[in-house]
Amino acid sequence: MERNLTLIALFAALIAALGLIPQLTLAFGVPITAQSLGVMLCGTVLGAKRGALAVLLFVLLVAIGLPLLAGGRGGLGVFVSPTAGFLIGFPFAAFITGLIVENWRNGPLALVAGAASVVGGILVLYAFGISGLAWALQKPLAEAALLVTAFIPGDLIKAVLAGVITAALARARPDSVLSRA
């Protein structure tokens, strides 16, 4: 129990730290950040439940006003901004990513974690992000989806990184990859 709480807090802090990497905000108000890599790693390393809890902790800290999002943003206002859908989708993305890694047991871990990151950390996250973006910008879903295509190359790189990092961690400290425990 104590180990789980520590890891949940540690991974919430990892997501926050990845927001410190200089961001680039696109014209429609959504920044390109490394925080989605943290969400992917929550799922691939911690598994579905613990990964989602780590991300929920991060979202809760943002909601109470801590400036943990890229660019030092935080507070309830971010839940009505163009980034709201992505933020709300973070826990779901981590959960689905972790669920895939927990259940897909055959194949190299780097490939499994990378593919899980594409499904959870990109497809699931984009479903929420596009919906939120369309709502915030008062645009049709198709137009919001077109705007989000700018993120695809970077997010594919993050998915590959999540796979490689998870596999390296499993080789170095097998007991630390709880999605495979």
Automatic annotation (TrEMBL):
UniProt KW Transmembrane keyword: yes
Major localization listed first in the record, in broad terms: membrane
One Gene Ontology CC term in the entry: plasma membrane
Presence of the UniProt keyword Membrane in the record: yes
Source species, domain of life: Bacteria
Compartments it resides in: Cell membrane
Transmembrane segments: 51-69, 76-101, 113-137, 144-170
Gene Ontology MF term list: biotin transmembrane transporter activity
Membrane topology: Multi-pass membrane protein
Pfam families registered for this protein in UniProt: BioY (PF02632)
Alphabetically ordered keywords of this record: Cell membrane, Membrane, Transmembrane, Transmembrane helix, Transport
Record InterPro entries: BioY
Similarity remark: Belongs to the BioY family.
Protein name: Biotin transporter
Originating organism: Loktanella salsilacus
Source organism phylogeny: Bacteria, Pseudomonadati, Pseudomonadota, Alphaproteobacteria, Rhodobacterales
